[in-house]
């Protein structure tokens, strides 16, 4: 009976919390912001990272582009790098200025539409340039200071550089990904120099 | 007294709805998807569109890029066009395949970092290409078949092609924006040919 009472109390408490969230979201009469629970990294028993769910609805931060045609046909990433941060982690980052444990960045790779010019560009109604085409795999980074202590607190994962994306991935060795982030990324192994949403508090 | 009772009933009903939303969001034990209320367009008394709120947390769909250097220094849009769809409208689109009334697309313009080469590109650790820099204004489209009947049901707005973005904007004449979308965009004046998230149900 005591458990039953606790369960009822939990439902009532949950209901009260949810009511606050719900009405909080409607305060402007035109809802859009709702408190979001975090999505945290999920691993297999042997430590592989599962492909994060629902990343297309995460917070987008920017798309560096290094086409093959400008890199001797041998670009490390011949695609748009569409980079997202997990929204619950972004909420914390906005307040603290630090990426919390469990932060996930998702870099979806997206090929450009076929080239018409030697520089890889083509012409569409809006002009000559580069236009997004097919998705082409993904890379993911996860912040976990204990699990990835050997790479300064971030783990790096390749979910294929082609479609379909892998369902799970093993962490990469330091000399495959982490070294470059450690050497060149502006803040805590994240390329905030390309992402004003993460770099410029005044611009948000 | 009767009003008081209704208010209490409303709170209880709201609480029940919110509880469903709240627990629904936790069904996988690792929450991320929550039912989202739609954010609908807001207008001034004289029909200007207010700058949409919170667009950086909307659903990103793609970034066509037409740099000045590849367009004789006269690109119509010399920036990354980072395009977002309002999330509540996207939820409906996923189910129906049609953009509902009130759909908003937000195109944030983002300059590339300063060029080092005649094609506008520069070299960073990941290779030679184009890297996102400062934001540079925004264009917005809204679907409203009655309000924008003259432009086939979509209104087009320019919130400056520089920062800061305008707080509100008047609808543009048909020959300034709509004509090009009507002539060239793949689906209902939206450039779904560049956005697999909106174009390819199998790829989602």
UniProtKB/TrEMBL annotation, chains A, B:
Pfam families: Cytochrome_P460. Residues 52-192 form the Cytochrome P460 domain. Signal peptide: none annotated. This is Cytochrome P460 domain-containing protein. It comes from Bradyrhizobium ivorense.
